[in-house]
Amino acid sequence: MDNEQLQKLTEDISLQDFGKPFRHRAFFNDRLKTTGGRYMLSSHNIELNRKYLIEHGRSELVGIIKHELCHYHLHLEGKGYKHRDKDFRDLLQKVGAPRFCTPLQTKKTQKKTYMYRCAACGQQYIKKRAMNPERYACGKCRGKIKRIF
User: Fold this and answer.
1) Which pLDDT score is estimated for 104?
2) Is the domain of 25 the same as that of 71?
3) What is residue 70's three-state secondary structure?
4) Are residues 32 and 91 in the same domain?
5) Are residues 89 and 36 in the same domain?
6) Positions at the binding site for Zn(2+)
7) What is the tens place of the pLDDT at every residue in 90-146?
8) DSSP E strands: which ranges in the chain?
9) 110 backbone dihedrals φ, ψ, rounded to 5°
10) Residues 6+ positions from 101 with CB-CB distance below 8 Å
11) Relative to the CA of 112, which of 21, 45, 49, 96 has its CA 20 to 30 Å away?
């Protein structure tokens, strides 16, 4: 699905479920990492995360679009458009939009760890940050520290 198809889908959902036209832009923003989508208050555009379409399919994307359209229409009407507002929660329930989207299943990359060992006594040190072993000595025996990996 490209941005033109997404725009058409958003306009169709807006007319069918809300009975109001969507007059702004809806597009994929590949920089979104943890959120399904966002409604931009200043421009009234809707940005959506393409990863949700890939991982969870079209039905999840439709739910996210409905959620963002709730923000959109309520904001333009001057009603409560925030998650905590009663108007927003009522409209979510009316159109069958989810309050939160399903979490993504993509694995987060593990942070690199550095392992050091004392040459004299064999004491191991695991660090999250690299260090210069020339500047440090073993805390147990004062021996030289060598980097393993």
Assistant:
1) 86
2) yes
3) helix
4) yes
5) yes
6) 67, 71
7) 999 999 999 988 888 876 666 789 999 999 999 999 999 999 999 999 999 999 999
8) 26-28, 37-39, 46-48, 114-118, 124-127, 145-147
9) -75, 145
10) 35, 36, 37, 52, 60, 63, 64, 67
11) 49
Give the domain extent around 22.
Answer: 3-95
Claim to verify: residue 85 and residue 129 sit in the same structural domain: no
Distance set, CA 123 to CA 49, 80, 129, 133 (Å): 47, 60, 18, 14
> Could you tell me if 27 and 7 are in contact, meaning their C-beta atoms sit under 8 angstroms apart?
yes
- Residue whose entry in the numeric block shows the structure tokens 């709730």: 70
Annotated binding-site members: 67, 71
pLDDT at residue 108 in the model? 63
User: pLDDT for 61-94, tens place per residue?
Assistant: 999 999 999 999 999 999 999 999 999 999 999 9
Look at residue 128 in the predicted model and tell me its pLDDT: 92
> Which residue in the list 4, 11, 60, 68 is annotated as catalytic?
68
Going by their DSSP bridges, the two strands 26-28 and 46-48 should be labelled as: parallel
Q: How many CA atoms lie within 13 A of 4 on its CB side?
A: 0
Q: With 0-12 CB in 10 A as exposed, 13-18 as middle and 19+ as buried, what is 96?
A: exposed
Q: Is 68 a catalytic residue?
A: yes
